[in-house]
Amino acid sequence: MKEEDDTPKMFKCSSTGKPAPTYEWRKDGKVFVNSLQITSNTMTGELIIIKPEVVNFGTFQCFASNKHGSAMAAPFKVKRAVVMSFIDTQEERRVEATQYKEMSIPCTGKPKCVPGNECFIEWLIGEGTSNKVVETSRIAVDKDGTLHFLYVELADESSTAVPYACGRNNELMKALYKGGNVIMTVKKVTNPSHVKPKVLFSQDVTGLLGGEVELQCIFSGYPLPEIAWFSPENTSIQPSSKYSFVGGTFRRNLKIKTLSGSDEGSYICSAINRRGKVNARIYLNVTSKPRFPEGQIFESQVVPRGDNAVFRCNMESMRYEIHPTRPIWRRNGIELNPRQIGSSSSQKYHLSDDGTILTIKNVQNPGDSCNIMCQTSNVIIDVNGDDAEASTYADAFLRVIDPITVQLLTQSQFEIDAPEPLSMTCSATTDPSVPKLSFKWSLLGADNVTYYDHNTLTSKPFVSFNIDMTNLTIDPAMVKMDNDDDKVRAVTGTYRVNISHTHDWEMISFEITSNIKPAIKAPAGFDLWIIGVILGVIVLLIVVIVIICTLYRNRGRKKPVDKKKDSSFSDLSRADGEKTPLDKISLSDVVKPLKSDDDSSTGDSDDDADMTKLNEDRSFR
Q1: pTM score
Q2: How far is CA 245 from the centre of its chain?
């Protein structure tokens, strides 16, 4: 603002809270006192600067407070608008130019001008300040204030009576200060020749994220060259919602709007005429004060009593720029000092090693409900092209509420052995400021595999709920099974109810068991022919085992006499009284009954003869 400006300026500070907050303004860190020049309103948050004097300029900040805490807005500066006189107003400069050649005249001794975005260099011709040099396709003024003739004509010559002069204009103050005179003489050329383009001005620029920026390329040449622009991706730039050319059809000044990180890079401006082509490269640096990564914010929190509250202030700078400073943390507008922060269990506040995460432990109500603010800074290029420290302030509110408390109204364990209905009921309370509690039931089956979520469970015919979902009734008789035991087993398991709202949750369980054992049944789809095959295999195995056992018993026995050796053996009978051991009889032998002792047919036989043994010559002994 300019001093003694009699146009009132109003600044509005607004905040939400319950009860409604009151406001306090501070200037340069001290409580502001109303005066004839500046007034503030504690109820509306308005600050009105009526007619500022030098002592009224400075840094202002707004605070909003109620019984739960205080919040603070980011500070802002009210500066005095200034434009000063040139230091060389009495000096006269003389320059010589050649027709059809370029000529550049710098603006020297430029005075201080604040604010930079309201200050411009203008070139004047003749006496006074009303006759401005108008920019044309052949005449241009660059960002440094230099006057360029892309090629000179005889009409460009000036004199002591009609000199050139540069002026500093402050649009905010509506003030223009004029510098020293410049006399330019022009040498005439009778046979002009074509001149190849030449870069007279190009300059790297810095733009703020989300803002706009102007790139400038000035080329000389005869005839005047055509100018084309190319993006960092080497694509031709044409007028659009993103790009526009300032100054008519000259295409010397390219404006880029709504800057993003992807706009950063090297832009090429190219000039071409009959004699050749030349390029200039301009680097656009997109900068920003500290900011949160995309998708992240500094969030207010509602935390149940006894839990920990965690705030994250992990801001970042733009790519390739210096990382923001370590955050400064404030509680209700007052900076937390090192004595309040530590890692011991007795300290309320704990910071991560890099200072970006603040944990408030074991929060209590109402003492820990408060406003939390973090502040970080980095260095950017301001509107005057100078390095400047830029700070970002982020604030959030911590509200501590009563946690969810759950009470069982029925027993938590049931054992059932008949399809009779049973009910499970619970009750829950929480902080009165929280919206209605949500109850969601689920079932984890007795086999720990079968699981029904809330939506699935509510669709089952064997369950029903009351209106507020605090009671679940199970009726096994409604299970679609024929056997009562199966119906009972189908409803057993762990029933869970999740009780929650936006900021807290609790879970309780009900166990339903049964001592009914499932009947052994063939698996579903087990065909009878498969059972028959299995039984046949079992019978076959039994037969094989019997044969093996029989053969094992006969192992090691002597072979019977080979009757084919001597057919006369078959007519011999055994001696009287001799018995044939059963264990010596082959399975193929036929056992005949022995005759009595008085059988006369054997009376002449030798009692000592062993009719079952053979001599070495195969005759009986």
Answers
A1: 0.70
A2: 38
